[in-house]
Amino acid sequence: MVRLLSWLTGRTRQVAAEPNPASNADRIIAIGDIHGCAQALERLLEQIEPTPQDLIVTLGDYVDRGPQSRQVIERLLQLQKECQLIPLLGNHEYMLLEALTQQTLFNFWMQCGGRQTLDSYGGSIDQIPTEHLDFIRNCRRYFETDNHLFFHANFAPELAPDKQPDQLLLWEHLGESALAPHQSGKRVILGHTPQLNGSILHQEHVTCLDTYCFGNGCLTAMEVRSLETWQVNKAGIRCLHETSSAC
Q: Which of 40, 44, 14 is nearest to 30 (CA)?
C-alpha cells in the first residue's frame, strides 16, 4: 500500500487557482473536513446563515468515511447559490476521480472510505452524477487572500502557493513540531490532519480545522479574521471545544 500511495501522489492533477473574490466579502469562513457528514454540514450552515456577501472556503475531503457523501456534494452545489463558495480539492476527492478509470486505484479508494461513498450513490461508481463529478474536478488546489492561505493538508514554507508539491498539498499530515511561517507572512488555514479531541489546532502561523467530524469530534467553521467559530457533531448537535495549541 505504501508503494501504491507513492505512485498515486505523483499523479495528482493540477487544478488551477482562479482570481480572488475575497476583497469585498463581509465574512471569510473556512470549513474543515466534512467526510460524508451531511447532517452536520446542514446544521453548521444553519448557524452560519450564509449570505451572498460571504465567502466560504471548504478545505476538501467532502466524501468518504461518513455515510452521506452524495448529500454533502448536493448541499455544496446548493451553497454555491447562497454565497461565494471556494471548494478546495482534498485527497479523498482525488482518489474518487482516479478510481473512475484505474482499477488499482479503485481498490485502494475502497480501503480509504470509498465504500461508504459508493453506498450513498446506490452502490456503483457509475451512479455518481456528472454534475457531482464536475464539481469535484473544478475544486481548487489552494486559495489565497490578502492575509491568509488555504490549503487542504500541508505546505512548504519556502514555496509560493502555486509551486507547492501535491504530496504536501493533498496528502501529508502535520507533524508534532509547529511549521515555520510561510514566506508570504500569511496565516495558513488547513484541514486533513484530524484533531481527535475535536478542538481547533492553533499554531503560531497555522490553523487546522479538521476536527474529526466522522469520528467522535465535530465539524468546524471559523471566520478567519474575527475567529468566530461554529461547531456541530455528526448528529448535528452544537458543540464547542476549547482551542488547542502546539509549539
A: 44
Are 125 and 97 a contacting pair, CB within 8 Å?
no
Segments forming the whole domain that contains residue 98: 23-245
Place of cell 465574512: 27
Higher pLDDT, 61 or 240: 61
Whether the full predicted model's pTM is greater than 0.90, yes or no, is yes
What CATH number is attached to the domain comprising 109? 3.60.21.10
Count of structural domains, the chain? 1
Strands across the sheet with 229-232, in order? 84-87, 54-58, 27-31, 219-223, 229-232
Handedness of CA 227, 192, 198, 219 (dihedral sign): positive
Phi (first) and psi of residue 30, to 5 degrees:
-105, 140
Residue 164 maps to a domain:
yes
